[in-house]
Amino acid sequence: MSRVVYDGTPIEFAPGDTLAVAAVRNGEHPARGGTLCLAGDCGNCVAVVDGTPWVRTCQTEARPGMVVDRHPAGGHPSTAGPDRHAQVAVRHRSADHVVIGNGASGAAAAAVARAQGDDVLVLDAADGNEVVGVFDGPTIVVRTPGGVDQLHAHHITLATGAAELHPVCPGNMLAGIYTSKAAEQLLAAGVDLGRTVTVGNDLVAIHGEVAAVAVERADGTVTECDSVIVALGSAPRDLLARMAPMVPVNVVGPAAHAHALPACPREGVVCPCGKITVEDLEGVWRKGFNELELVKRASLTGVGTCQGGVCMPHLRAFVADRSGTEPQPFTARPAARQLTMGEAAAGYHIDTFRRTPLHAEHVALGATLDRFGGWFRPWHYGDPVAEYWAVREAVSLGDVSTLGKMIVSGRDVVEALERLYPNHVHDIKVGRARYVINLTERGHIMDDGMILRDADDRFTLTFTSGGASTAEMWVRDWVETWGLNVHVLDRTVSHGAINVTGPLAGELLRMAGVNDDERPKFLQHRRLEVAGVPCHVMRLSFTGEASFELHHQIDRSVELWQALMHLGEPLGIRPHGLQALFGLRCEKGHIIVGQDTELDSSPRRVNMDWAVKLDKPAFVGRDALVRTAELPDERRLFGFRMDGPAPLEGSAIRVNGDVVGHVSSSWDSPLFGHAVLMGWQKRAPHAQVVQIDGRDAHVSEVPFYDPEGARARL
Amino acid sequence: MLVSEFTDHVPGWRIIAEPAALDAAPWPAGSHVVRISSDDAYVIGSVEPTVPPDPHAIVTPELGFSMAAVLDVAALAEQHIEWELPADRPALAQGQIAGVPAKLVLHADGSTQLLVACAARHELEGRLA
Asked: I want to staple A405 with a disulfide (CB 3.0 to 4.6 A). Which of A108, A452, A491, A548 is the partner?
């Protein structure tokens, strides 16, 4: 015979034994007690198998060298597991018809389906296909020896049979108690159960210290034994049918048969998974939890390993007895079996984080990259303060390829943009640009960007990096809703963009072949060759300094970046990351949508009424703004200055001890030598001096830096 | 190996125009047209296509895609695609592959090409490895 190690002791097993049968063969309970069904219906045999806890040992074939440890008495096993888990393979499969259960009724259902010409797949745990969940779709998740299958089926037939009832009585958590089919299985495997006694619904109690030594019947007789075999009837094994109520599942065979509830339990453990007793149920019932779902939630009966497989009939009987009405079973939720984290994650992916065409350049320059707005972006290149000064005093490059970029064209394009944006569009001249905010129908700011006019009937639109993913949908949805003739093409991942910014930005462009007279002025844009690369040059400013965004085809990004870095060496050029950029724009009081705004921030709340033209007859959000214009609204975004280190973004803003808002942006300004912040005061009267981190902060006009905007126009 | 090595910045053109204009467009010889939607054609090839008879058409170079040949489409589908592939060829199938938005160009000769934005190529490559 081969051996497995059970709680540190080698035990022998016979070919074909499961771990649970091997334990019983050696006179042990596979866990710490409770009725064994050996059918996977209960949690009374779960143990840690080769480091994985919560494994049903009755469903796990014993193999030489396996290491099994019982769960700790009265507690849960560690789920820490190994530091690194092997990736679990996933297979996506499809079938016309999936039959779950390969017993008589399942085989018959499969035969009928095949006769109808269906492509049929039959799944049975005995064949290694353990169904752990049925989801809308429908999708069936199956644990297999090779990993996890995700099956996409048009029809599902459930033929999972019936589960034998467990006894609920004093002593029902002792070892040596078996359902009748479990006993058959053990005897067939040659396991010696000693003196057995078979009992039915006349069972009153099972006596013993660790294992059963006697049973007591309703007539008062007590029979000594080594093993108790319980024959109490069965209940539908319909967990999977109750798992996805929107999925039509055809239930056949015993799983579909109506079964009478057992007698109301009077004493003993109802829920072996949670060791929840009849007394516990009575306690929550007395507190007013008088429905099945409430009893479940209050007592946690049915939320354990077996998901109600054992306790559901008894719990229903308890509620029926107390309420006089037989309750329906509660909804089941995946998973029907414990899964490892690897199995649960199989086939699922975290969001894709994209790389700009300059990713390798950033890495080569020693950038610390961070995930931001769906992209890997340089947070800094080692010295964010030096990067800041490069922008303020010389010239710097920023990778803004992540910005949303879109071309719109068409007969109705001006009309569409007038309706989309809250500012005027028709008066933007070809070659000119305008800053814009995007509003929801409720008049709340959802994004911002630029409108650049390329021709009478053609515009380039930009959006924030975070807003880019929804921008195309937003534009298309509205254009289609209005029935306007507009073509839309998203260029976000097809165009790179480099921001050349700083007082020497114009000089760098000159060195890159752009004459002063062709360089666009502030809020102008032009198509030019820069260092030999065709670019759409947009003159705007987020940093507060002269800035030229060079939009170009992404296959030229590296060439353009390297040329500018090389040409800019005599000017003291260095790239800047997001950390410096956020500080630069904070000094200018430029908001970042989503950071300085909240979900319900209107233009008024962020002091940007100037970006809204209510004289326009219609635009998205206009009705809401008009409707709320006269309503009192105390919430405002303010600029603050304070001495000492800048507080963390998110810090509470207090007035006389009361929290009145929070800090949305915070920056230790190298230029000013003190912290500059933006943050919310959510009620009037607005204080001029607030407290943040126990220090005073003073309301300050924004922009903090260059309020006339002269630097951007250099 | 499920796919060949990827080629970044596949030369091509993107044309957004009225569906009828795209239907009637004379595409350059040797180019391959991927009809992303009724008003959106991705013309793979170096030759600039003739502007279709739509005065507002957007015609612009498209260098944002990375392309690989699919070596075993059945295995790719089984391991990485939750949705059902079209049964007929030629066809364009679009959706997530290993969680990354991508396109499969299923040619009539049985070959298949995989298109993904260059920005997400590294992610898809890693997930298919």
From this structure: A491
